[in-house]
Write a structure and sequence with these properties.
It is built from 5 helices and 9 strands, in the order αβαβαβββββββαα. By secondary structure, it is α+β, with helices and mostly antiparallel strands.
């Protein structure tokens, strides 16, 4: 299957820009789809934290907009095992722009799971990707991975609302970003970043 390529990275989350595989989505990731995948991983005792659009909707407790993938943060030490589990369920790894700590798996229906492997440091921060000695590497702060939410009636772990809003503030937002940030603002009372207050 040929997957279309996204020409611009401008719409990617700030923390992931330059790290996420560059491709287009071919199918919607519905709530039932996300729940099915999460139940599969839970049955194999694989711990994940939900990020991205489904992370927002987990916090809201319902699907508020269409999604083209399911973003999962997990321990780097588990990334091979999760690939095997998803592979047995019909997903294959997309090699385009894949990195050892971040790659996409897609099934025949076009459903995409975007995997983000982290290494937890002593403070509980999730170190994501290369970590230069300068300390300029990307991280999921320890406080960010303490969120909980609901997908299809089941409790899930996800990024916190505060992290989601702050993460969206680092780049030029698109329509989905405005939707997500405003939904979190209305639900949790989090102050809107300057660029989101204009709509």
């Amino acid at each position: 299957m040929d997957l279309p390529v996204i020409a611009s990275l401008a719409k990617l989350p700030y923390a992931l820009r330059g790290l996420r595989p560059v491709r287009g989505s071919t199918a919607e990731m519905t709530e039932a789809d996300a729940a099915e995948i999460l139940r599969l991983l839970k049955s194999h005792w694989i711990e994940v934290w939900i990020d991205g659009g489904w992370g927002v909707d987990a916090l809201l407790g319902h699907q508020s907009r269409p999604h083209d993938d399911l973003d999962l943060v997990l321990r780097q030490s588990e990334i091979g095992r999760i690939a095997e589990v998803l592979g047995a369920a019909g997903f294959r790894r997309v090699e385009e722009a894949a990195r050892p700590f971040n790659f996409v798996m897609v099934d025949r229906r076009g459903r995409e799971v975007d995997l983000h492997g982290v290494v937890f440091d002593a403070a509980g921060n999730g170190l994501y990707g290369p970590q230069p000695a300068s300390g300029s590497g990307r991280i999921y702060p320890a406080a960010a991975i303490t969120g909980t939410g609901t997908i299809d009636g089941e409790s899930v772990r996800c990024m916190t609302a505060e992290y989601q809003v702050a993460n969206h503030a680092g780049y030029d937002p698109g329509d989905a970003d405005f939707h997500d940030v405003n939904a979190l603002h209305e639900r949790f009372g989090i102050e809107l970043p300057r660029q989101f207050a204009r709509r």
